[in-house]
Specification:
About 30% of the residues are buried. About 40% of the residues lie in helices and about 15% in strands. The protein is of the alpha/beta class.
Length: about 130
């Protein structure tokens, strides 16, 4: 089974952990943004997580884009950077939910796939 690197706002880290548990039950090996979750220095945490994304053994990047501050399918600046990094390094990039409208052109242009909340779609798409 493939490795999945999870990304998302630390404001929804409980949801990220929930998604990780569900993916592990499905048989995936999940890599979390642990340095971010531990509140380490932004530079250290970001570099460590970008290293996970570009690692040749990690083929899937999954953005947990939950509702945040009343905004559906929210993707913040860090998650957008992670999408771009994954795209540039030829990873399969997915959104847990639907497309975040402000980044629609880039998300569609880069071939990012929205799962619309259904993790089972990974089986048929990957």
């Amino acid at each position: 089974m493939e490795n999945i690197v999870l990304c998302g706002s630390m404001k929804v880290k409980e949801k990220i952990i929930d998604v990780a548990n569900r993916l592990e039950e499905m048989g995936y090996n999940v890599l979390l943004p642990v340095e971010c979750m531990q509140g380490l220095d932004k530079v250290i945490a970001s570099r460590a997580h970008f290293d996970r994304i570009v690692n040749k053994d990690n083929e899937i990047v999954l953005i947990v884009n939950e509702k945040k501050n009343g905004i559906e399918n929210y993707i913040g600046p860090n998650s957008f950077a992670e999408i771009a990094f994954g795209f540039y390094h030829n990873k399969k990039v997915f959104l847990l939910n639907d497309i975040y409208e402000p980044y629609k052109d880039e998300i569609l242009g880069w071939g990012v796939t929205p799962l619309k909340g259904d993790l089972n779609l990974l089986w048929s798409i990957e």
